[in-house]
Amino acid sequence: MIELHTPAEAAELLKVSRDTVYTLIHTRELPSVKIRGQYRVRGIDLENYISEALGWEA
């Protein structure tokens, strides 16, 4: 099963504000899907974002 997070959950995991997550989504720095008008972020995309931010290989 694919792990999906709301922007609020993603913000908590990344230790940033929800607005920051929305900015990352809108600038396409953080991949997301929109389901019935609501954004969701896959867990693997959060892991990849963190790895890239730290300069680690994903």
From TrEMBL:
Superkingdom, natural source: Bacteria
GO terms of molecular function: DNA binding
Domain called Helix-turn-helix: residue spans: 6-52
NCBIfam families registered for this protein in UniProt: excise
Protein name stated in the entry: Putative molybdopterin biosynthesis protein
Taxon lineage: Bacteria, Bacillati, Bacillota, Clostridia, Peptostreptococcales
